[in-house]
Amino acid sequence: MIITYYGAGFTKLQFGDVVVGMNPISKESAYKSGRFAADVALVAINHKDFSGTDTLSFGEKTPFVVRGPGEYEINGITIGGFSSKSAYDGKEWINTIYLISLEDMRICHLGALSDTELSSAAKERLDEVDVLFVTVGGPGLLTPAQAYKMCVDIGPKIIIPLFFDEDKEKNIKAFLKEAGSAEIKPIEKLTLKKKDLEGKDGEIVILSSVIS
Questions:
Q1: Which residue in 12, 26, 6, 208 sits closest to 107, CA to CA?
Q2: Do 32 and 49 form a contact (C-beta atoms < 8 A)?
Q3: Domains of the chain (ranges, CATH numbers)
Q4: What is the predicted pLDDT for the residue at 212?
Q5: According to the model, what pLDDT value does residue 44 have?
Q6: Strand, helix or coil at 43?
Q7: How far apart are the C-alpha atoms of 160 and 207, rounded to whole Å?
Q8: What is the distance between the alpha carbons of residues 6 and 35, in angstroms, rounded to a whole number?
Q9: 3-state helix, strand, coil in the chain (%, to 5)
Q10: Which pTM value belongs to this model?
Q11: DSSP H helical segments within the chain, as ranges?
Q12: Which of 55, 83, 166, 199 lies 20 to 30 Å from 33 when distance is taken between CA atoms?
């Protein structure tokens, strides 16, 4: 699996020939957006900063779009969507937390979460998470302290915090302080196999956005 970051809450997962785009940034957003062809698009909330599925089409290839809670299976990928709340950009949204199972790995993206406690249904499913994406410090989203506490509650092997442009450096420092971690140098992408997860417990990885 190769993980690439495109800014805000937008991430790309590639498993061989299968590509998943999570929370793509719309061309109408104030944030800069990248584009690539995806097989599956996951949308947490119907806001232009998280729902630009048009940026995941290329030529005749268009993604299968998942926009809410439920159980899905596409191209050998099992996806569970769980309802939560978001106060992103000063409005109330139903936020979908996604859990993806593929290649014997479990990947969770918390989306535009502002809830500081998960529902009992989500807690039951979000066990033994291998990689957890948490969006930190955006307008109405989890603060660095709240985000790290959520990560501890879920207990993933790898934590990938995603930061908005505003106060990015400040929020990175605050998140790492909560974790008791020294400065972590961002990397351009993360390549993982199941065996790479052995012995890891809450390791933090910070990705550089490919969009400048």
A1: 12
A2: no
A3: 2-204 (3.60.15.10)
A4: 62
A5: 98
A6: coil
A7: 7
A8: 9
A9: 20, 35, 45
A10: 0.96
A11: 120-125, 144-154, 168-179
A12: 83
Judged by DSSP in three states, 15 sits in: strand
Tokens of 92: 């109330």
- Give the CA distances from residue 175 to residues 23, 65, 163, 171, in Å, rounded to whole numbers and listed in that order: 22, 31, 10, 6
**Residue with token string 């790309």:** 12
Q: Which residue has the tokens 């989500």?
A: 122
Contacts of 199 by beta carbon, 8 Å cutoff, 6+ apart: none
Determine the residue type at 139: P
Q: Give residue 51's identity as a one-letter amino acid code.
A: S
Report residues of the chain scoring pLDDT below 70: 212
Neighbours of 57 (CB within 10 A): 15
Give per-residue pLDDT as tens, 112-160.
999 999 988 888 889 899 999 999 999 999 999 999 999 999 999 999 9
Q: What are the residues whose beta carbons fall under 8 Å from the beta carbon of 60, sequence distance 6 or more?
A: none
Cα–Cα distance measured from residue 86 to residue 44, given in angstroms and rounded to the nearest whole number? 9
Nearest-10 Cα torsion for 184, 189, 193, 197: 20
Tell me the C-alpha distance between 5 and 39, whole Å.
17
